[in-house]
Amino acid sequence: MPMPEIRNENGRQEVIPRDTAVERISAKGLRRRGDVRSFFERTTHPNSAIEAAAALDHSMRMGMASLTSGLSPVSLGLAVADWAGHLLASPGTLSRLTTQGSLAWLQAMHQAITCQSVPSTDPRYADKAWHAWPFCALASTHGVAETWWKEATVLRGMEHHHEDLMQLLSRQWLDMLAPSNWPWSNPKVIKTTFENQGANLMRGAAHAYDDWRQSQGLLPLKPDERLYRPGLEVACTPGEVVYRNHLVELIQYTPTTRKVQREPLFIVPSWIMKYYILDLSQHNSMVRYMVDQGHTVFMLSWRNPDESDALLDMQDYLQLGVIEPLAVITERTGGIPIHTTGYCLGGTLLAMAAAALASSNVVHSAPIAPLASMTLLATQLDFRDAGEMGVLLDEAQVALLEDIMAERGFLTGHQMAGSFQFLRARDLVWSARMREYLLGEPDVPNDLMAWNADVTRMPAVMHTNYLHSLYLHNELAEGRYEVMGEPVSLGDLQLPVFAVGTLKDHVTPWRSAYKVKRLVHADVTFVLTSGGHNAGVVSEPGHAGRDYQLLLTKATDRRMSPEVWKQRAPHFKGSWWPAWHDWLVVHGSGMAPARQLSPLDSVAPAPGEYVKTRYRD
Description:
Blueprint: E1 5-7, E2 13-15, H1 18-25, H2 33-42, H3 48-67, H4 73-88, H5 91-113, H6 135-152, H7 160-177, H8 187-196, H9 199-215, H10 223-226, E3 239-244, E4 248-253, E5 259-261, E6 265-268, H11 286-292, E7 297-302, H12 314-333, E8 338-343, H13 345-358, E9 371-377, H14 387-391, H15 395-406, E10 410-411, H16 413-423, H17 425-438, H18 447-453, E11 458-459, H19 460-472, E12 482-483, E13 486-487, E14 497-502, H20 510-513, H21 516-519, E15 524-529, E16 547-553, H22 562-568, E17 571-573, H23 577-586, E18 591-593, E19 604-605
Parallel strand pairs: 6-7, 6-8, 8-9, 9-14, 14-15
Antiparallel strand pairs: 1-2, 3-4, 3-19, 4-7, 5-18, 10-11, 12-13, 15-16, 16-17
Helix pairs in contact: 1-3, 1-15, 4-7, 5-6, 6-7, 9-17, 12-13, 12-19, 15-19, 16-17
């Protein structure tokens, strides 16, 4: 495997021994890049025994990681041991679960014989053929197993993290064994194979072979990915890159109205994926919609990192990705207050920056205009209940990730995408593979699918900072996160907040996004919209089936639980985008002549160069 490389102070690349890279990347207590390098210099000539032990440990962990698809066997083993130990120490519970299981199986078999019970809400068994014998028996018994395991993995005395992990693992295992995934137990596959004389299986085998070749780098991009190219079919809203540094390009979009809202709108997307989730096709581009409503929109485009960026940390992302662009926007708009928006982790980073700007202890070198408002789209600030992604993360898992990142200096986009696929394996793996490999039906290409396949890397030090500070230690919500050596508090934020949660979000559960009300001392307009983490945000006007709830709570109002908020918030049909536009207008100061772009302002035409960088790893 190649050694990871970093860029030293002179701009040249240097090769780091792999065991030393592990030490460097796992220096979680060292916040600033200079401190990290100083620490590394002190470990340049380690004791030979320590060096040999570290190398052996690293090789052992990497070998285990290859067998467990990157999941920590220590974390998995502790969860299973916790569950098994409490089960064996609870004979009454063991007897009850055994009896319940036996009765449930007997009842399921009776219902299956008469074909009375097929899981009606499970889309895997929506086809009418599942109501015929023997397929109804397979579907009903599988449903019984899911119900039993969901109860059996929650035992009194278990660590909550281990309960969540055991539930996740049992669900993944049962999703894999679902009768809908196999050609001999899926009636739709059997019928299709008979009608097509096996041609569907031949097409499926070709799809599987192409997927394997692409995973090995033997095949170029899939045709559906080539149909949606940034700057041609997606990310097409006209504009100019007006600023570029090592980490980001700042895009200013061309106005389409003679007058615009006086306050500009600055959007910080997540660095995990490319920015154009918010500028997809013409009909569903949030950027185009906001420009057409008369907003001066600025958007960040994150650089796709390489080996030379291994030592970039969270402070670099904060300074280069938010603070510097805010200073540029301040200069370009004459110091007018700025509406700010963050999506997913971009919102987390934006909140850090806003808290730093609100703190009297953090000093900035360049003038930055006041923030007029902050919009958070599917953003998590309190990571105590971080959803399914948090279930996979503990100290052992993060340590293994540090070893994996030390191999090359970054976490590959495909490794990150694999984590999301694991969490939603039923939809993204098993159901998709069933359609593609068994029915011979390739996924219908669309812009969102192509964006989802356009994965990005994450620098090793930044990623380990982020995992330790936020997921493991929840420093931002608890007021212990440091910016420029000073802790910042979200409680210092008094600017109006517009926060969006989505009902089916597995990355940022809406109840977690709702916690912003508890963390900031400000008026919060919270929106709960239909859809998931991406589709709930990309919810353009005219999109069929969209609806949302919206309710303003004042800073002085009594706190409401998420459930009480959901009961009281009124329902609205359609997209929440117009409500957001109206909210920005209310919190603005009127109209001004449109800010025209000059050729002298341009570093490059939108969408810039950073968004086009793709790696085949």
